[in-house]
Prior knowledge:
Two copies of one chain form a homodimer. By secondary structure, chain A is mostly helical. The first copy, chain A, is built from nine helices and no strands. The radius of gyration of chain A is 19 Å and the shape is elongated. In chain A, α1 packs across α4 and α4 (about 60-85) packs antiparallel against α5. The first copy, chain A, has helices at about 15-35, 40-50, 50-60, 60-85, 90-105, 110-115, 125-145, 155-170, 175-190. Helix content of chain A is about 70%, strand content about 0%. The interface of A and B includes residues 155, 184, 186 and 193 of A. Chain A binds a DNA duplex through α1, α2 and α3.
Amino acid sequence: MAEKSDEPTARKPRADAERNRLLLMETAKTVFADKGSSASLEEIARIAGVGIGTLYRHFPTRDALVSAIYRNETTQLAAAAKSLAETHPPVDALRLWLVQFVDYVVTKHGMSEVLDSLVGGTSELYADSADLIIGAVNLLVDRAVATGEIRLAMDPLDILRALAGGASISCGPAWREAARQLIDILIAGMRASR
Amino acid sequence: MAEKSDEPTARKPRADAERNRLLLMETAKTVFADKGSSASLEEIARIAGVGIGTLYRHFPTRDALVSAIYRNETTQLAAAAKSLAETHPPVDALRLWLVQFVDYVVTKHGMSEVLDSLVGGTSELYADSADLIIGAVNLLVDRAVATGEIRLAMDPLDILRALAGGASISCGPAWREAARQLIDILIAGMRASR
DNA sequence: ATAAATGTGGAGGGCGCCTCCGCTTATCAA
DNA sequence: TTGATAAGCGGAGGCGCCCTCCACATTTAT
């Protein structure tokens, strides 16, 4: 039905388009960092020196833009889960990864769109990023549960929601510290005591 | 410096103004419940049948409106802490109150403004509401710490942030359930095990 | 060189925010 | 009762942002 990607009819993607795409992501990244995720898209286009229409062509929604910017980091975070799982005992790995997760979220500042991705709710655009994170946390939790070191009668994702949500309220470095304590309490609470 | 409230020059507040104020709060409450806290203020004014200028006269910012609407419920929540403290053992009281807190937040739907009040950040308007909540949670935590039943090496407020933040991400009844589990884990984690 | 596909830019319609100020209405004093 | 006057009302209007749409420009392939 659809064309295969190596169909002979395929054309090389235009060079200028790719350049603009990168330029927009670069610009958006700094603007978002400066002004939070509610920064005006028109401003981003203006600073990047392209028309607003171009921005919308590449990123049909604000979410698409945000998501594109942070896909790399999300991938890295997911990868970290695997490597931690291989190099640390289950509970330690989980704890360390949760700390990294918080750092990841905190640096995203007010990026509620990214956080919303975790709900797995509406946005198709986030589906794959969300899957990465969900897979990561499930991997770590399952491992610790398998060894009997912790019990968990809830969706691990909800723990991430709490940690991420805290960041959305109390943004900045203060939450890093608080979250660290919180993680310790959670781990302690999840330890199978009997 | 400022006029005393019983200064002879004081005038009776106008009846129509008070009526409009109440009408606006009533309307806003239902509209916010329907459409979340991002509902248009102009729509609220329209539905209430008053001019937009009137809305802004009574509530100079969106926050002021939201805050006014929920002041009652916030007060009740704070009062619940005191009564729970008098009728339940420390840890039970804390757990029950946290559950109530989550319910309170969940029913506020997407009211990030209310949640922000907990940061004690910018908004002077929220200062007193925030103080009520902070006082409530501190009362309950201190009591449980005093009896030695729990230890807590962090600001109790940060626990509220996590619970409230989770609600802001995963809104609705699902979070009620998740939060309940989370509260149990937290309580377990805070119990002084040794 | 030329055709076709692809991408560009910005005008424009819609909406929400908030301010400002001429008009209305309630209160008070005479 | 009747002004006088403080208090309140309302909505037009300026601004900025969102997003769509399409005539025009640029790139690629032939």
